[in-house]
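Would you mind giving me a polypeptide sequence along with per-residue structure tokens?
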Amino acid sequence: MRHIADIRIAEFDYPLPDERIAKHPVEKRDECKMLVRNGQGHITHHTFKDLPSMVPQGTMMICNNTRVINARMKFQKATGASIEIFCLEPISPVDYAQMFQAKGSCRWSCLVGNSKRWKEEPLTKTLHIDSRDITLTARRIGPHGNSWEIEFAWDDDSLTFATIIEAAGYIPIPPYLNRLSEDVDSIDYQTVYSKIKGSVAAPTAGLHFTQEVIDRLIANGITMRELTLHVGAGTFQPVKSETIGDHPMHTEVFSVSRRLIDEIIEQLTAHRHIIAVGTTSVRTLESLPYLGALIMQTPDIKPEQMHVDQWNPYQEQFAQFDTLQALQTLSRWFESNGIEVLTASTSIMIAPGFHWRIVDGIVTNFHQPQSTLLLLVSSFIDRQTSIDKQATSKTNASDGATTSEWRQKNADDNLSKPEWQRKDESDNKAKPEWRKMYDQALANDYRFLSYGDSSLLTTW
């Protein structure tokens, strides 16, 4: 198999007409379409509210409970020029929870729109909070990587930054929607189970869940659990390099509890399914064994050093470790460090050739062409296909047919078909599995991207 870094992003392209990009969600969250692809590659079409009947009893379903913040703020200069500041991640305090409780001032890593028109002068904005006028000031401190370090200060020390940003900013909807944020986005662009503030983009696979769907899942014997990964603007970062080896994956901060780690260990030991809701949950869950492997290699590693690099899963020193042993090591590390919740970071790259260790089902939307999210979906489907091929081989053997006999029978059957049918089937076989699935979605009028329809992908 070719090296992961040599995969060409152009191989993950497909035609996506603008009219297929959903600009708004369906009226009722759980009435969107849902494509279901099982481990044998069989595709069926449903609505999302059918999800509870599609998931086996005993499955654990894990959601990302992050909440989108009003990360975009507009300031008006005295000259009339408009400056937009987009908060990316906290600098001081660096912890998200502490940041939103900060009073008086704080610093963020930010993108700045119309940056050339902002010199050195501070920007001010008047906010109306609880019948009071509050002055918010933004000062540009200096460069911070590919962004800017911005200090925010406000003239009422009784107010937290959570209150300030709620009043000063607005929801940062995805750029490919090609429209301004609307008041309704503050509701539509949040999951019903969102709790922990910090994301600048929603974990959109979860937007389809309603409390009714969640209640039915629980009633059907599904264990619902949560983790937190704060979605960064890097989720929209296009792959500009020809091969993915030259693409730097964005880093995102996540939090998991020791209790969740232990429950995952129990689930895997009992050979029960684990479904990740969204690619953010996938990236978090599949990063966990590598944290355990890091501990096995460096037992005295500190919490602030817990990071999974994008290439760790493909490096020789991480190739052979046992998943359960790594998770058990991680659980013991929690205990020895006296912590119940770990905050770590990941820039994991999940692409064809990835060794899946935890997740065997995914709820996800339909993603942009030539995106790393499409690489992740392709990797999962390739895993499904390899499982299906193993099952097919066993079936052929049980039928008593040799490989050569089976191939000859298929060749004879193919020759009996009309030429046009043979050509169509040949063209379809040449397409990768992810593309066949996306073609079906397009042919069945599915809506794409953040506010679009859903899919359930499983290995069983």
The longest helix spans residues 372-398. The domain at 4-68+189-374 is CATH 3.40.1780.10 (QueA-like). The CA atoms of residues 252 and 345 lie 6 Å apart. Confidence is low (pLDDT under 50) at residues 385-412.
